[in-house]
Design brief:
heterodimer, A: 2 domains, B: mainly alpha, two-stranded antiparallel sheet, elongated
């Protein structure tokens, strides 16, 4: 067969494939013609190999090559669509991949949680016995500002806060919390020390505030406010920190790899954790803006809801994304 | 040889070459995206401000979406291209030429923060210049590359009717030489006659001392013979 016959024989096939791959038709995944794409693609691959081997004209080879590249992209894109499309993929990412990754990296999560939890708990407890110690930890004017924020007066006025303010505060919280998450992650690049520093300082600061307000008799205001959103928010921070610690650990102990290779290997799980952390933080911001700020609700109800949210968070991370056995 | 092509072997038993995009074309796409984001940043908040305090909160969230999730959403949902990349004919693909998914889109855009350091994507540029495939740190981490998406052009029509009667080449031709002759016959109509003659005369063993239009006709005749070879 010479080149002219070769082109004449397959021209029709190539046009059909090109038409099926046209983005204008691609939207209709079930359109007639798309079902034949894989078979046409395999034949086309063989035809390109023949055209190359026989040194047919360059423009023909270029055309067939471009068609192969487009078909390759389309066939593998179709595989994603078969799984239910990108939206289903996104849900799977958050509902399955993310909790599974958290469990796989539980050591880093535990270190991050302890680095925050220990100074926090120690601060709260120590200040019950040695109240003046708080002045070593927090500047006096910061302390008085916080105390005013949680005083009974401001709590009463808070009830008149409108829905508009809630939305405004939601935007503010989400940006602020994401900023802290990013700090925790980025600190990992300094061998994890930056992450630990952020965790410890936040733990000490919040522990001092919590301990001081409890000791000053404003405990119901403070704990009632933070109960609802603290579980997802602290989890988000711990996960972002765990991602930072993973990066730091890859730099400290790369094992039998170069540091760059170790870092590259950690990058994917770290990114999964970070985006999961961002989701948690966003949930926390919703609760903080629309629920925690309500002062017309009894303290006990707020604690109960806080406990429920905590249980839900723990259950999601502990149980989510497990495969059912056969 | 320095080349911006990346060969990939497909399971279908054929090799494709992906055309990698360099720093300049990617910077151009980035500028278009930047302009889009700036436009959104300037146009939308004044509208949202009409909603009062709630609008302020929505503005925060909107800006966050516009600046952080813009590349992620477009690259994951729109065949690997932000509007800027699409206008410049670029696309993000996995290093084997398949479309990227969410985790790759997330990862390469998280790492953007590192690439932006210390100013104006200096780290990303250094990484692209050092890497064989023009990958910035985000691409290295996510295993992605940015390629030129070439449109599948139709091969130009060129039929025997427009060629003189075939003349077998007087000497044996190497495969690449055969292809050069075919390409000459195909493309010579895009040159002036003088330029075509000039090129044809270079193939001295084939045109055997002919010059000008004669040389061109002889080379065409050889091309016709090559087209008919079995």
């Amino acid at each position: 067969m010479n080149q002219i016959e070769f082109e004449a024989r397959h021209e029709d096939e190539w046009n059909r494939l090109a038409q099926a791959l046209d983005p204008k038709n691609a939207a209709a995944a079930g359109a007639p013609g798309t079902a034949r794409v894989p078979a046409l693609f395999r034949r086309l691959a063989a035809q390109l190999a023949i055209a190359r081997d026989r040194q047919y004209r360059t423009s023909l080879i270029d055309r067939l090559h471009a068609l192969v590249v487009a078909a390759h992209f389309a066939v593998h894109g179709a595989r994603i669509r078969r799984r239910g499309g990108m939206i289903t993929d996104l849900l799977g990412f958050f509902l399955r991949e993310f909790p599974a990754e958290v469990r796989r990296q539980w050591r880093f999560v535990a270190v991050a949680a302890l680095a925050f939890g220990i100074p926090f708990a120690a601060g709260v407890i120590a200040l019950q016995w040695y109240p003046d110690f708080v002045y070593y930890l927090v500047a006096p004017d910061t302390l008085s500002r916080v105390q005013a924020m949680y005083s009974d007066d401001s709590m009463r006025f808070g009830a008149e806060r409108g829905a508009g303010t809630d939305v405004k505060m939601f935007g503010f919280y989400i940006l602020n919390n994401v900023r802290i998450d990013l700090q925790c992650l980025a600190g990992g690049i300094f061998f994890g020390l930056g992450t630990l520093a952020v965790l410890l300082s936040n733990g000490v600061f919040l522990g001092a505030i919590g301990g001081h307000l409890t000791q000053a008799g404003l405990g119901r205001n403070f704990w009632g406010f933070v109960a609802g959103h603290s579980a997802p928010e602290m989890t988000g921070m711990a996960l972002a920190s765990a991602a930072g610690l993973m990066i730091g650990y890859a730099l400290i102990a790369p094992g039998r790899k170069t540091r760059a290779a170790a870092l590259r290997e950690r990058a994917r799980p770290a990114a999964v954790m970070l985006y999961g952390a961002a989701l948690m933080t966003a949930c926390a911001a919703v609760i903080e803006a629309f629920w925690s700020s309500r002062v017309d609700l009894p303290f006990e109800l707020k604690l109960a809801v806080g406990a429920a949210v905590t249980a839900l968070t723990v259950a999601f991370l502990a149980l989510g994304g497990r495969e059912r056995g056969p | 040889m320095i080349d911006t092509l990346r060969p990939v072997s497909l399971p279908e038993g054929v090799e494709i070459t992906l055309q990698l995009a360099g720093p300049v074309s990617r910077a151009r796409a980035w500028f278009i995206d930047f302009a889009c984001k700036m436009l959104l940043t300037m146009m939308v908040p004044p509208v949202l401000r009409l909603l009062g305090e709630a609008g302020e909160g929505v503005t925060f969230v909107f800006l966050f979406l516009a600046w952080v999730l813009y590349p992620v959403l477009f690259e994951a949902l729109w065949s690997g291209a932000t509007p800027g990349k699409r206008i410049c004919g670029l696309a993000v693909v996995n290093s084997d030429g398949t479309p990227i998914g969410w985790s790759a889109a997330f990862l390469r855009n998280v790492m953007r923060m590192a690439d932006m350091l210390p100013i104006g994507y200096a780290v990303g540029l250094a990484s692209m210049l050092l890497d064989r495939h023009f990958r910035r740190l985000g691409d290295l981490a996510a295993g992605t590359i940015v390629v030129h998406r070439a449109p599948a052009r139709a091969a130009s029509k060129f039929t025997l009717a427009r060629l003189p009667p075939p003349v077998a080449p007087p000497t044996a031709l190497l495969p690449l030489e055969q292809r050069a002759v075919l390409d000459f016959a195909e493309r010579r109509r895009s040159w002036s006659d003088e330029r075509a003659a000039e090129i044809a005369e270079i193939a001295a063993p084939l045109v055997q001392g002919r010059t000008g239009a004669d040389a061109v006709d002889r080379l065409d005749a050889v091309a016709a013979a090559l087209l008919e070879r079995q």
